[in-house]
Amino acid sequence: MTRSPAADVRRALDALQAEEHAREARIAGLISAAQASIAGSEEAAAADVAPRLARVAQRSADLEARMQGTAGTASQLYGEMQQLHEERQRVELSMKWCRAVVQLKHACAALAEALEHRDWDAGAAHCAAALEVDQEIVHSEFARQSVPSTMLPDPAPQTLARLRTELLEALTKNFAHYTAPATQDEAQATRFLSLFPVVHAHAEGLAAYTAFAVTLVHAQGKGVQEKLLATPPTAPYYGMLWGAVFDSLAIFIHEHEPVVDRLFLQDGHAGFVQGVLPGLSQEWTRLGLQILEVWDEKRQRVRMLRDANAYRFTVLDGIRGAPHTPGRIFGEGEKPKTDLSLPFSLTRPSTPSAAPPEALAPDIAHADVLLTELAAVSSQWALFRQFLRNQLKTDVVLVDAAAGRAPDASLSARLDALVSETFFPLQIWSLRASIERVHALDTPDLSARPITSSLPDDLFFMLRTIFTRTLSASSLELAERVVTQALALLETEFVEIVVLRMDGCRRALNVPRLVDGPRRAAAVREVKATMIVYLNVLDVSAAYTERILADLHQESFLMQYFDASLPDRADPDVSATSELSLAQDIVSRIGSLTPKLRSALQFETEELYTTLVEPRVQALLHEMLHDLSYDLDEAAYARAEDADAVATRLRAGWESVLPGYREQLTEPNYALLFGHALDAILAPWEEAVMHLRFSELGALRFDKDLRSMLAFFAAQTPWGVRDKFAKLQQVAYVLNRDDDDEGDIYEAGASLGISWQLSPSEVQQSFTTWFGR
Question: COG4 transport protein middle alpha-helical bundle domain: from which residue to which, for each copy (predicted)?
Answer without folding.
Answer: 160-503
